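Hi support team,

I've been running sequence recovery on a batch of backbones for a student project. Most finish fine, but this one hangs at about 90% for roughly twenty minutes before it completes. I'm not sure whether the input is malformed or the queue is just slow. I've pasted the structure tokens below so you can try to reproduce it. Let me know if you need the job ID as well.

Thanks,
M.K.
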């Protein structure tokens, strides 16, 4: 795994928060997303549920169409799919009318039990998550989690993860805040409950564009994980059988998407997160004259995907 440092001044933590971080010289909190980041490699559960609810209404959607709004509050995700011109045209062709708010209400309530069933079928932790969390906790880093899932689904995935040994100190879902991603409120709620500030002492780790946008909006380090990402969209088994060229190409596409969204960094796999944390903390020790440009480099601290 090679690393490089580039510049992203528009999204680097502010000078004030950078100076506050220098006082501690360490990351104090990592906020993880759930599906596609810590559990459910490839984020299969949400995509399957969205495709099923559309199919029940006679409209077939592709995996890419189901995944495009991933990371949003699930009702907003449904709205985003219906607003996709191609999907809207198919809806109109089947129903001979445009979709309405009543359709959104009906489909969302049909989606919820589908989502719960797919979570039960796709709740395995991503490889080496427990080792990464143990490494972070040994450093004194607190662990939080956020999700676009509604409360019942968020509680279910947390319970399933706990049975496998992963228990964040704080778990916040879209129902807990006035607005889900890309708004920063879930991250702020985790920071508040963990007693951690400033935002530059926080890393937000996710697998979707909405995750990256929420981290940037919160003013913390915003990091994308590639191999398990919904953007990559395949299972660990499917990824493992790819040859090196094809595997590299698909992961680079995911990394490029994260960078286009403005992330500070990408990691190929969650296992690389401790190494990235070392990089960030090393930059934080440069001295009191540190500026956001020096902290983030030209486009942020990045662990490059092979």
């Amino acid at each position: 795994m090679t690393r490089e440092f580039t510049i992203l001044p528009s999204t680097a933590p502010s000078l004030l928060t950078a100076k506050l971080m220098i006082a501690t010289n360490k990351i104090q909190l990592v906020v993880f997303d759930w599906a596609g980041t810590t559990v459910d490699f490839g984020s299969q559960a949400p995509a399957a549920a969205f495709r099923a609810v559309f199919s029940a209404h006679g409209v077939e959607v592709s995996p890419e169409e189901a995944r495009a709004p991933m990371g949003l509050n699930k009702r907003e995700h449904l709205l985003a799919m219906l607003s996709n011109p191609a999907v809207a045209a198919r809806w109109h062709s089947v129903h001979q009318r445009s979709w309405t708010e009543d359709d959104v209400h009906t489909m969302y309530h049909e989606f919820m039990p589908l989502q719960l069933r797919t979570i039960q079928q796709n709740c395995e932790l991503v490889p080496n998550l427990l080792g990464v969390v143990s490494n972070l906790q040994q450093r004194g880093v607190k662990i939080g989690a956020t999700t676009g899932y509604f409360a019942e689904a968020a509680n279910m995935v947390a319970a399933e993860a706990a049975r496998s040994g992963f228990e964040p100190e704080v778990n916040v879902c879209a129902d807990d805040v006035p607005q889900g991603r890309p708004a920063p409120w879930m991250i702020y709620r985790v920071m508040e409950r963990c007693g951690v500030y400033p935002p530059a002492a926080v890393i937000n780790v996710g697998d979707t564009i909405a995750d990256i946008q929420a981290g940037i909006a919160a003013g913390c380090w915003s990091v994308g994980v590639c191999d398990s990402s919904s953007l990559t969209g395949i299972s660990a088994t499917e990824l493992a059988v790819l040859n090196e060229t094809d595997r590299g190409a698909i992961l680079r596409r995911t990394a490029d998407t994260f960078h286009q969204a403005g992330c500070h960094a990408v990691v190929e796999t969650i296992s690389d997160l401790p190494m990235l944390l070392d990089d960030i903390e090393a930059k934080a020790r440069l001295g009191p004259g540190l500026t956001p440009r020096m902290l983030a480099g030209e486009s942020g601290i990045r662990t490059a995907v092979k």
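--
Follow-up from support: It reproduced on our side and the slowdown came from queue contention, not your input. Strands lie at 3-7, 29-33, 142-147, 170-173, 202-206, 221-225, 265-267, 299-303. No action needed from you.
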